[in-house]
Amino acid sequence: MKKLLITGFEPFGGEKINPSWEAVLRLPNEINGFEITKLLIPVVFELAAKKVIDVAEDKYDAVICVGQAGGRSAITPELVGINLRHAGIPDNEGNEPHDEPILQKGENALFSTLPVRKMAEYINKAGVPSQVSYSAGAYVCNDVLYSLLSHYKGTKTKVCFIHIPYCKEQGKAPSMELDDIIKGLIAAIESIAV
Ligand code: PCA
Hints:
The chain is an alpha/beta fold. The chain is 27% helix and 23% strand. Helix 2 packs parallel to helix 4 (140-151) and helix 3 packs across helix 5 (178-190).
């Protein structure tokens, strides 16, 4: 059976929950012929990607990381990761890099290797608002996306990152029902043919 690793983050920035992990945790264990493994990762530069790579090794066909993007109102698969760390707030271990590269000799940017446009189409078709995003920011989510794309470049392991809005339970706006976030993630996985 094909194998997919999907990750969610711990809470950060004063929030009590992170909707990425709440949604990932509630996904079925099998979707679209993929056996799904779920992993909680820390909101810490460098360490988050290291945890994913330690678990994934070369055992997975696809790795999808999910993170909260407060302020967005749609599910946004990210097209690109950039070689930059720039924090607006400290991460969960107090790191606050400013304009530092992730990899000293890395390429400036790397494109997702999973079909993010098709993902957005499938999510919309499932009745959940979605659009492709051209920036995952420069905080820990982008750090994870770029680091994984660099690590798995040219291998069988395909990678993407999906940002999601706040969920209703967080009491912030804009927000999305957790059930819709879950529905959207399932639709995204249904779009993958590897
Ligand atoms: N969102 C942050 C990091 C963890 C998360 O859920 C980001 O967009 O970088």
